[in-house]
Amino acid sequence: MTKRNECRVNLRHAGGRRRGRAWQREKAGMLDEVKIELITTGSELLLGQVLNSHPGYLSGRLEALGLRLARQTSVPDGKEGITDVVKEAWGRSELVIVTGGLGPTSDDVTREAVAAFLDRKMKFHPEILEKIRGYFAGRGLQAPDMVRVQAMVPEGMEILPNERGTAPGLFWEDRERGKMLAVLPGPPRELGPMFEKWVEPRLRGRAKPGQETRVVRVAGIGESAVQERCEAALRELGVGEIGYCARPGEVDVRLRGAEGEILQAGVGKLRELLGVAVYGEGVETMEEVVVGLARAGKAKLATAESCTGGLVASRITDVPGASEIFLGGWVTYGNEAKVRELGVREESLAKYGAVSGAVAGEMAEGARRRSGAEWAVGVTGIAGPGGGSPGKPVGLVYLAVAGADGVETIEKKLVPERKTFKAMASQAALNLLRVKLLTNPFHKTEV
Amino acid sequence: MTKRNECRVNLRHAGGRRRGRAWQREKAGMLDEVKIELITTGSELLLGQVLNSHPGYLSGRLEALGLRLARQTSVPDGKEGITDVVKEAWGRSELVIVTGGLGPTSDDVTREAVAAFLDRKMKFHPEILEKIRGYFAGRGLQAPDMVRVQAMVPEGMEILPNERGTAPGLFWEDRERGKMLAVLPGPPRELGPMFEKWVEPRLRGRAKPGQETRVVRVAGIGESAVQERCEAALRELGVGEIGYCARPGEVDVRLRGAEGEILQAGVGKLRELLGVAVYGEGVETMEEVVVGLARAGKAKLATAESCTGGLVASRITDVPGASEIFLGGWVTYGNEAKVRELGVREESLAKYGAVSGAVAGEMAEGARRRSGAEWAVGVTGIAGPGGGSPGKPVGLVYLAVAGADGVETIEKKLVPERKTFKAMASQAALNLLRVKLLTNPFHKTEV
Questions:
Q1: Min Cα separation A1/chain B (Å)
Q2: Any A CB within 8 A of B281 CB
């Protein structure tokens, strides 16, 4: 391999296609926005049951900067395949982010693939090896010999320190053509801080004005109902691009392609037309909103779960600071536990069955009484696949919220698939708490 | 647009590159394996915080057939962009799967992108519209006018019925060149059944012999330790390709590229060298293994959680049939709840603190006693970001399992990032239950 200057590398990989694209984009007045592609490497991403969290995380970070991913590609571990796909992306984009394959094991080949793409030799950096050895030593361990490969860097590439692991990131910039290549480690907890500290600062100010995105999050109403109720009014406001994304128990409405003021008016219109069904904006989650409202209102919460099996409590406790407002929860899966722990009445179980509004209400009330919370939620239903009957099919759920003024109960028919059902039922339970907290922000128990 | 025969479409899009690839693969004796690419469409996949579950699901299904995804690409909603990426994939692969963008809203453009790729006109199918109207009517709703677009199909494409939603799938086969295009709806609960019923049967028998994958799942030991202990022995057996994938609290070891017998010997070797740290194979999850062992041993389980906030119970109840063995759980987030609900001693809290082995043990013992379970697990720790101290940093966790013979307690230092911490701590708690159930399969409470 011979060392070549950056400009030539760029010219070779970019070719006519890139110039054509740039011209089209220039004509459309979009030259300022940096076009970004993500390449996630790793055979495991293409071999069963692994969720790839990088596109979601990185696009969320980019969105906050007014930028978006133009494309994301997953390829298996393999030097030629990675080199090919980096080359393709380089021809189309101004920033190519490559993740994964920087570890010490035999299937970690991204360093070499990038060196091949840039046509650079690998260079050993003793200072990186020292740092890796220090990382191991801090845990009372000796670094295995094979970590040495992590100290090899394609010549001329900048080294991005890894504060949470051993593999350094790599960065390469072609200033003349305004192109960048960032190579980041695969583990999300290493990638995140590295991206935020070393890559984000180079992207600030690269968004085209008027290209921000606003996301409004809606619960308790379906995707087509949201569109029927809102789209005409949004179009009238001149919001450029309207997108919908339905997930279990929620719908995101995405506005883009207009100036900030117009987008803001669109958000206001959605709030006006959908009312309390709008639960948040941007990347806010339902549980973050619930915990935020409870903290603001100094209201304590408790949970009593049957079919959701602890998921409501787990989502609440995903939020930092939940301990200030969450007193505790019960997972009363069997009838015995419902009676013993929460004081559900035997008569209610006999008369209405465990999956009933009466039992949901008694569960919520029991949890509230025992914990001393201002608000407690109760959930009982049939998650399936077994346990359904013609009168009470899989997917049926009863939700109740208990407060100082009494208990409110609702019935819902959800999707009869176990995990989707759990997600939807937990979302409905959190939404019930949210609406109570919104409408009674300082509602306290009288003692 | 003019109608053209399938062969010509194929010839135009395939070009020389495809022929070159096929030749290389033929030379390598790999012609039998169908090369598969996945294109997931949807701006939301590239705009913040959405997890794309299709690659994981589809690659898991393909793996069971001995096949794998060669590449996965996400592109935003947009006709030209989708047409381009389908064209590229078609040139490289024998099966292209496209997901999403089949809904009724304005951003659903995949139908038209595929029609443009095939150079076909759109044709209205009244029988599809009738089916969609029936779907709405079954829910007591009237179908909105805009669903009509879901009854438009590019001429000549096969229609795949959707049993769980309104959008039909689309299928196109070029028999002469052995190429297929499957277009499936975005919602996972619609995509899954459609793929399994209509696409999988066409893929059976397309795996090259000796190209299966075996995955061994390991918990309680790190990635580099697994490699150091096993790789040399696996290489000696002639296992072709060895991959490692570390996730919170577990490591997958992936063996591939050798005949079934050799892979089986590799799995045996891993079990021999790693012992009880191997918790499963293939796509088995830790919670499935725990529930399976408890059912086999007729042992009932209970949980007492502080820092994991209900996640252990939620993971157990993710498994169908968990109600047979899971009696219930407590989320005792505050000290009061620990004392009141589980009988944790005030003295222990005062002397050792809430995050201590003593309290974890008393939580587990309390849950076991109150529920009547054979085994109960207790978890207490510091999830962060607040609450840490020099003596008890964020990431510290105590886990205990209580059985008829007493309580066993362990201390672990986990990653100090809240969600990763919860995932790792719940994994460690389930692993503790697993090892107890394995070593005492029929261990029952003496009453």
A1: 24
A2: no
B388 touching A (Cβ < 8 Å): no
Tell if the CB–CB gap between A74 and B75 is shorter than 8 Å. Answer: no
pLDDT band at residue B394 using 50, 70 and 90 as cut-offs: very high
Asked if B69 is an interface residue toward chain A (Cβ–Cβ < 8 A), one would say yes
Instruction: Please say whether the beta carbons of B396 and B355 come within 8 A.
Output: yes
Asked if A43 and A190 sit in the same domain, the reply is yes
Radius of gyration of chain B (CA): 27
Same-domain pairing of B263 and B306: no
DSSP annotation string for A52-90: B-HHHHHHHHHHHTT--EEEEEEE-S-HHHHHHHHHHHH
Task: Give domain status of residue B235, yes or no.
Answer: yes
Q: Which two tokens stand for residue B313?
A: 């119970």
Closest CA of chain B from A3, distance in Å:
29
pLDDT in tens, B277-323: 999 998 789 999 999 999 999 999 999 999 999 999 999 999 999 99
Nearest-by-Cβ selection for B417 from A189, A314, A329:
A189
Residues B261 and B296 in one domain: no
Pairing label, strands B36-41, A301-305: unpaired
- Dist. CA B134–CA B147, nearest whole Å: 12
Q: Is B211 a residue whose pLDDT tops 70?
A: no
Determine the pLDDT at residue A164: 83
Tokens of B271: 């079990």
Q: B252 to chain A: nearest residue by CA?
A: A44
CB–CB contact A47 B53 (8 Å): no
Same domain, A300 and A389: yes
Work out the burial of residue A163: count CB atoms within 10 Å of its CB; fewer than 13 is exposed, 13-18 middle, 19 or more buried.
exposed
Chain A positions in Cβ-Cβ contact with residue B144 (cut-off 8 Å): 224, 228
Cα gap A287→A221, rounded to integer Å: 18
Beta pairing partners, B301: B326, B375
Regarding whether A295 and A273 lie in a shared domain, the answer is no
* Domain co-membership, A38 together with A146: yes
- Closest Cα in chain B, distance from residue A284 (Å): 10
> Under an 8 A CB cutoff, do A313 and B317 touch?
no
One-letter identity of residue A210: G
For B247, which residue in chain A has the nearest alpha carbon? Answer: A187
Instruction: Say what the ipTM of the complex is.
Output: 0.78
Q: What is the 3-state secondary structure (H, E, C) of B75-123?
A: ECCCHHHHHHHHHHHHHHCCEEEEECCCCCCCCCCHHHHHHHHHCCCEE
| Structural domain contains residue A445 | no
Digitized pLDDT (tens) for each residue of chain A, 447 residues in all: 333 222 222 222 323 333 333 333 333 333 356 899 999 999 888 876 567 889 988 988 887 787 889 999 999 999 999 999 999 999 999 999 999 999 887 788 999 999 999 999 999 999 999 998 988 887 777 888 888 899 999 999 999 999 888 889 999 999 898 899 999 999 888 999 999 999 999 988 777 666 678 889 999 888 878 988 999 999 999 988 888 877 788 998 989 878 889 999 999 999 999 999 999 998 789 999 999 999 999 999 999 999 999 999 999 999 999 999 999 999 999 899 999 999 999 999 999 999 999 999 999 999 999 999 999 999 999 999 999 999 999 999 999 999 999 999 999 998 888 988 999 999 999 999 999 999 875 544 443
Indicate the residue of B187, B305, B371 with minimum beta-carbon distance to A337: B371
- Count structural domains, chain B: 3
Q: How far apart are CA A283 and CA A273, in angstroms?
A: 21
Residue B240's CATH number: 3.30.70.260
Q: What is the CATH number of the domain that holds A223?
A: 3.30.70.2860
What domain range is B101 assigned to? 6-202
> Which residue in A has a C-alpha nearest to residue B319's C-alpha?
A418
Which residues on chain B are in Cβ contact (under 8 Å) with A223? 103, 105
A158 and A240 share one domain: no
B127, part of any domain: yes
